[in-house]
Structure to design on (620 residues):
């Protein structure tokens, strides 16, 4: 118990350090970029004279020495104050909280779907490595990886927008259903979620099915599996109960490592399907030169990745009992 | 000395590891297919535009001309009436060049950081590992988007942005390899003979760490190409240079009217990345004799 507590504390401390480092990177970026931040702000406000510029500098603390500005920036960010959006004139943190839900919904649906289906495909393929199905899984994983995610999305939009219009191809909700009950709304969101989640999930499905196949093949060749077979255990029990548990470790590792890529993919998928998440917020921020929102999204998604990594670490203990005693 | 040993074993011809790897690679049909596809794509990219001779930004015909209907615009025209075929032929240059340059940068950063961390261990390792972790938690595409926005979107900035976000995997791999190799007997022998750290790293350890690093570099080329395509799709690359991603991005609002303007450049990206990853897989099998027993 105490060892778990110490590990947990250590992990949390490291995670906190990473958050600080991310903030430091952001701060460096703002100040390394060409151009005076005050000029940028004045530009977004529609121009300013010298007096107004001085006011802006004072207001944003830009007249203070850099280290002091950095400390102020850290303190504010840690209290959840990520600045004010230039375009929306709202606190960035509230803007992000509005968009966080849709992104998490999209990313988790894609991730969980890809892991479950990918593992299943990999397991089935590993049982007969020379079968047709196994070959199909291999080809599928190559194709799925090489398709640019935004292109997959666009092909699906063309398919379901033009040829076979049974799926909504943009947005998260149907405006005509806004007044309806909670159940209707939930089903509406799910209906809109199908295509974006499938698009984003496909790349990861490709990777996990391949990884699961390789990992299972390795585990199925080990001695304890032969022992289990010699004991006369049923094939299904061996595959799903004995082998899968050990084959899961690399899958979980990769899933944790790739959470950042998943968010990157979500940016592109959200753009294609006009999904109202962090990705579209970031792109809007870029078009509007709204730096606080842009950096806020970067900070927030980095925190999401850090949390995902923490959860991955913890799930190792759940999957592999040997780690619990350490 | 070397001559004596080789004269002692005349029965089997000794192949150098590299030639052995090439032999395995050549026998791999998928990998050779990848090599063939990539050669064709590079050939078309280099020669195609000068043979076809239509500029990709020129308006050649009515907008939304479907493909295979007009001999002057064989793959149709986009929403502005620009020739899709001309774009597909030229668009690979930026995509592939940026992908290659960014991958080179990423591999250089990754191998340097991983090598230093793995070779020296101790506090150097902890410090560099923390840096690697930091870059791992920054979502790569978002970080690249921020870099490109804060600085001007030129091809150089795009190369830099992709290179700076794509190196962490290579660094982890290089670190593990250097850690494994630095205490092997031959490395200790070289150390005993007075080799300094730089010589040990570059002349003794790096050559033996190369095979997995080459495989990872190939895979990075593939993802760097996808990255460049993604950035130009979002309109965050140089707007004056035609690329496959830019073609898809600029026609995004009109995909229901001209599917061909997004389908063909997308297929080109897909084929290029597919070819590169087939080659990567082939190299992986060729360098890991253990794997192709499966």
């Amino acid at each position: 118990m105490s060892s778990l507590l110490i590990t947990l504390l250590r992990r949390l401390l490291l995670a906190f350090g990473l958050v600080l480092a991310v903030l430091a990177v952001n701060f460096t970026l703002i100040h390394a970029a060409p151009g005076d931040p005050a000029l940028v702000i004045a530009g977004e406000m529609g121009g300013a004279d010298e007096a107004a510029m001085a006011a802006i500098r004072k207001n944003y603390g830009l007249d203070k020495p850099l280290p002091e500005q950095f400390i102020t920036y850290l303190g504010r960010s840690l209290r959840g104050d990520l600045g004010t959006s230039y375009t929306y004139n709202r606190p960035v943190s509230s803007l992000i909280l509005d968009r966080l839900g849709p992104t998490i919904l999209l990313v988790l649906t894609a991730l969980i779907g890809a892991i479950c289906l990918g593992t299943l495909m990999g397991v089935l393929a590993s049982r007969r490595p020379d079968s047709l199905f196994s070959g199909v899984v291999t080809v599928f994983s190559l194709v799925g990886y090489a398709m640019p995610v935004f292109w997959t999305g666009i092909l699906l939009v063309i398919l379901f927008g033009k040829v076979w219009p049974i799926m909504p191809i943009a947005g998260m909700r149907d405006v005509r259903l806004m007044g309806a009950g909670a159940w209707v709304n939930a089903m509406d969101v799910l209906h809109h979620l199908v295509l974006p989640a499938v698009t984003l999930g496909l790349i990861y499905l490709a990777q996990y099915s391949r990884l699961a196949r390789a990992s299972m093949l390795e585990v199925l060749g080990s001695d304890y599996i032969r022992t289990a077979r010699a004991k006369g255990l049923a094939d299904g029990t061996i595959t799903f109960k004995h082998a899968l548990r050990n084959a899961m470790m690399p899958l979980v590792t990769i899933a944790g490592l790739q959470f950042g890529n998943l968010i990157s993919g979500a940016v592109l998928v959200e753009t294609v399907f006009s999904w109202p998440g962090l990705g579209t917020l970031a792109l809007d921020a870029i078009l509007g030169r709204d730096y606080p929102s842009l950096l806020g999204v970067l900070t927030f998604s980095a925190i999401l990745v850090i949390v995902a990594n923490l959860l991955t670490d913890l799930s190792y203990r759940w999957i592999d009992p040997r780690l619990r005693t350490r | 000395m070397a001559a004596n040993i080789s004269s002692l074993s005349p029965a089997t011809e000794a192949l150098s590891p590299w030639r052995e790897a090439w032999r395995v690679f050549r026998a791999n049909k998928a990998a050779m297919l990848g090599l063939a596809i990539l050669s064709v794509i590079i050939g078309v990219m280099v020669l195609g535009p000068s043979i076809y001779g239509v500029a990709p930004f020129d308006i050649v015909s009515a907008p939304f001309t479907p493909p295979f209907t007009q001999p002057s615009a064989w793959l149709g025209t986009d929403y502005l009436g620009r020739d899709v075929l001309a774009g597909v032929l030229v668009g690979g240059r930026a995509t592939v060049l940026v992908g290659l340059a960014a991958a080179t940068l990423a591999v250089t950063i990754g191998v340097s950081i991983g090598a230093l961390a793995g070779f020296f261990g101790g506090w150097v390792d902890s410090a560099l590992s923390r840096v690697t972790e930091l870059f791992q938690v920054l979502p790569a595409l978002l970080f690249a988007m921020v870099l490109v926005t804060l600085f001007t979107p030129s091809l150089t900035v795009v190369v830099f942005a992709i290179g700076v976000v794509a190196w962490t995997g290579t660094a982890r791999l290089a670190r593990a390899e250097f850690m494994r190799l630095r205490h092997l007997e031959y490395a200790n022998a070289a150390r005993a003979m007075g080799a300094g750290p730089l010589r040990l790293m570059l002349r003794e350890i790096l050559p033996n760490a190369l095979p997995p690093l080459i495989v990872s570099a190939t895979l990075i080329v593939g993802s760097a190409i996808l990255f460049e395509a993604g950035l130009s799709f979002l309109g965050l690359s140089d707007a004056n240079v035609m690329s496959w991603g830019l073609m898809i991005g600029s026609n995004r609002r009109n995909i229901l009217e001209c599917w061909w303007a997004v389908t063909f450049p997308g297929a080109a990206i897909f084929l290029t990345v597919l070819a590169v990853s087939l080659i990567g897989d082939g190299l992986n099998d060729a360098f890991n004799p253990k794997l192709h027993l499966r």
Chain A is about 80% helix and 0% strand. Chain A touches chain B through 51 residues (CB under 8 Å). The CA atoms of residues 77 and 258 of chain A lie 26 Å apart. Chain A has a mean pLDDT of 82.
